[in-house]
Amino acid sequence: MHSLDGPVLTPLRVRILRSGSSGNAIFLDAGDVRLIVDAGLPVEMIVRELASLSIRPPDLTAVLLTHEHDDHAKGAAALSRMARCPVLANEGTLAASAAALAETPVERFATGRPFAVGSLTIDAFPLPHDAAEPVGFTISRNGSSVVIATDLGSTGDEIVARARGADLLILEANYDLRLLSVSPYPWFLKNRILSTTGHLSNDAAASAVVGAAEGRLRTAVLVHLSEINNLTPLARDTVQWALDREGITHVAVDAVRPNGTSRTYELQ
Ligand SMILES: [Zn+2]
Ligand SMILES: [Zn+2]
Prior knowledge:
With 268 residues, the protein is an alpha/beta fold. The protein contains nine helices and 14 strands.
């Protein structure tokens, strides 16, 4: 007799290996495929973090890039060579990283056109950020999904609507406005961060999480925190207070300290 239950899938595991202005990498393990989203660290550091999870580079299926900035892409070519797996990115990102990826196997995806990698469906969506063709990702399997949105100057309705459909939201909370205004950063840099194609403030992240909480969202993880212009408890509390003010109790909030690692999140 055939079982009606279908194959039993291992949980989809998600772990932020590193997050912050000096380097970002997220690891996803679906059992049949293993992805790195962004590889903005020295490759040795990624390998060390993977080893702590008993994963070796050849276990990786692909390296996905959100955009070409160094803190997301500088280790991609070396990791791809070591793992013998391709770098997946859209046309704009590949063109902007052409020199760095010259010796690297690459595969192109189109922003807005979902594609499959093993059991995972990946949908790249545009983000407002000062890069060639920056994107976030919705990565889903069996009705569960994670939305990754880092490096964005603002969250429009579309991004919030997308986050509403996710179980897990990995969202940038780069700076606290008061800390940024008194920080030693030069004004041109402050203006870049503040612009609508720069980075996301704690307050903007908080209103996005409140908006997303109307949906199926259960966990929001704040990432890409500035070491200079933010404080980990402040980022977390800003979002938590916003949820508390609205009486929302079903969304857990974590913040990953600058250059820190998260715990492992599991989606069924
Ligand atoms: Zn960037
Ligand atoms: Zn970045």
